[in-house]
C-alpha cells in the first residue's frame, strides 16, 4: 500500500467565526441578534470554532456555555479583552479585574488564546476623539511593559497565550506602530493577532508582515476592506465606527487584501493557527449575517482551509 500523502500545511489552520460577523460589538444591545441565534447560525454556516466576543454577550457561566456550544458542535478558540495599558500602572487593578474574568471563562471552555485589543482613542459609541492618536515615548514604554506583565500573568495563572490585535483607531494600527510594538516586546510573551482587514484599513501589507515577523504571528482574523469605501473614508478622515456603517468592511472576495496569499504565507509558518472570520458590520439587519457567513465559509474552503 502506498504511503498516505503528507497533510497540507494549510490543514494546520483552523477556521472559525465570531460574534462580530453577526454585528455584535457590545455585551447587550437591542440592535444585535440574541446569542442563541448567533450560535445556531454560526454552526449552520459550517464553522466549528468561535470566539467569545464581548464579555457577557454569551453566557458567562462556564457549564452553561460549554453545554450551549457543545450541543451545536462548536468549540471556543479565544476570549477577547480591551486594555488601556499605555496609561500606566494606575490602570492595572481595573484592567486585571476585567482580564481575569474573561481569562477564567476562556480557560474553562478549553480555549488557549486571549485576544488583547488596545483601547480606542475615540469613544466606541460616539466616535468622539478622547485621546491623542499618537503616544509619547513614556506611553509606549507603559504599553510595552504593561502588555508583557499582562501576558505573563495570563500565562502563569490561566495557561493562555496573549495575542495583541492591531486595530483601527487604536495606538497599534499602522505598519510603523505595529513594528514599534513588536520590537519593544518580548516574543516569548507577546505575539500578534493579525487582522487582515484592520491592517489593510491602516495601510499595512499582511503578507509582508507575515513574511517579516512570522514568528510573532500567533493568530489570524480574516476580513477584507472595500477599497472604494476606504479611499473615501481616508479622504474625509471618517472615524472607524461610521466607516463600518458605510460598509468599509466587505465579504470576501470583494475586497482587499486577497486572502489566498495571506493564507498561503501563513501556511508556510508551519504552525498551528486559528483563522477567525470577523466581518465588522455593526449594526446590521438580523437576517444579513447568515447568508454572508455561508458564502464566506464556502469561499475559504476554496482557498484550502
Task: Show the helix and strand layout.
Blueprint lengths: L12 E5 L17 H10 L4 E3 L10 H9 L4 E9 L8 H17 L4 E6 L18 H22 L2 E4 L10 H10 L6 E5 H6 L4 H7 L4 E6 L1 E2 L1 H10 L3 H6 L3 E2 L8 H9 L5 E5 L11 H14 L3
Parallel strand pairs: 1-2, 1-10, 2-3, 3-4, 4-5, 5-6, 6-7, 7-10
Antiparallel strand pairs: 8-9
Helix pairs in contact: 3-4, 7-10
Task: Explain what the structure shows.
There is one protein chain. The protein has 305 residues and is an alpha/beta fold. It has a single domain (9-302), classed as TIM Barrel (Alpha-Beta Barrel), CATH 3.20.20. It has eleven helices and ten strands. Helix 3 (92-108) packs parallel to helix 4 and helix 7 (206-212) packs parallel to helix 10. The radius of gyration is 18 Å and the shape is globular. The two termini are 28 Å apart.
Radius of gyration: 18 Å
CATH architecture: Alpha-Beta Barrel
Query: If you average the pLDDT, what whole number results?
Result: 95
Give the percentage of residues in beta strands.
15-25%
**Spatial strand arrangement across the major sheet:** 1-2-3-4-5-6-7-10
Categorize the overall geometry: globular
Number of domains: 1
- Sheet bearing the most strands, described? 8 strands, parallel, barrel
Approximate helicity band = 25-40%
Count of individual helical segments: 11
Broad CATH class: Alpha Beta
Ranges with pLDDT <50 over ≥5 residues? 1-7
The CATH topology is given as TIM Barrel
What structural category arises from helix and sheet content? Answer: alpha/beta
Helix-strand string: EHEHEHEHEHEHHEEHHEHEH
Strand tally: 10
Amino acid at each position: 500500500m502506498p504511503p498516505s500523502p503528507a497533510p497540507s500545511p494549510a490543514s494546520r489552520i483552523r477556521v472559525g467565526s465570531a460574534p462580530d460577523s453577526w454585528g455584535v460589538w457590545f455585551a447587550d444591545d437591542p440592535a444585535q441578534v440574541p446569542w442563541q441565534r448567533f450560535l445556531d447560525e454560526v454552526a449552520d454556516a459550517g464553522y466549528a470554532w468561535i470566539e467569545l466576543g464581548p464579555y457577557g454577550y454569551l453566557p458567562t457561566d462556564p457549564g452553561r456555555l460549554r453545554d450551549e456550544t457543545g450541543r451545536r458542535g462548536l468549540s471556543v478558540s479565544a476570549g477577547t479583552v480591551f486594555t488601556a495599558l499605555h496609561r500606566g500602572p494606575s490602570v492595572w487593578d481595573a484592567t486585571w479585574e476585567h482580564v481575569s474574568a474573561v481569562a477564567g471563562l476562556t480557560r474553562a471552555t478549553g480555549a488557549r488564546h486571549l485576544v488583547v485589543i488596545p483601547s480606542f482613542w475615540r469613544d466606541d459609541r460616539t466616535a468622539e476623539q478622547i485621546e491623542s492618536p499618537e503616544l509619547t515615548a513614556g506611553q509606549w514604554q507603559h504599553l510595552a511593559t504593561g502588555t508583557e506583565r499582562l501576558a505573563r500573568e495570563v500565562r502563569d495563572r490561566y495557561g493562555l497565550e496573549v495575542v495583541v490585535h492591531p486595530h483601527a483607531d487604536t495606538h497599534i494600527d499602522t505598519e510603523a506602530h505595529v513594528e514599534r510594538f513588536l520590537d519593544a516586546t518580548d516574543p516569548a510573551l507577546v505575539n500578534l493577532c493579525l487582522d487582515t482587514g484592520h491592517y489593510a484599513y491602516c495601510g499595512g501589507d499582511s503578507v509582508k508582515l507575515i513574511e517579516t515577523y512570522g514568528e510573532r504571528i500567533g493568530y489570524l482574523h480574516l476580513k477584507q476592506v472595500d477599497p472604494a469605501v476606504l479611499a473615501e473614508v481616508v479622504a474625509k478622515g471618517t472615524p472607524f465606527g461610521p466607516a463600518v456603517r458605510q460598509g468599509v468592511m466587505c465579504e470576501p472576495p470583494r475586497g482587499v487584501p486577497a486572502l489566498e496569499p495571506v493564507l498561503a504565507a501563513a501556511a508556510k509558518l508551519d504552525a498551528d493557527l486559528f483563522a477567525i472570520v470577523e466581518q465588522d458590520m455593526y449594526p446590521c439587519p438580523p437576517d444579513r449575517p447568515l447568508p454572508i457567513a455561508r458564502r464566506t465559509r464556502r469561499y475559504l474552503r476554496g482557498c484550502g482551509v
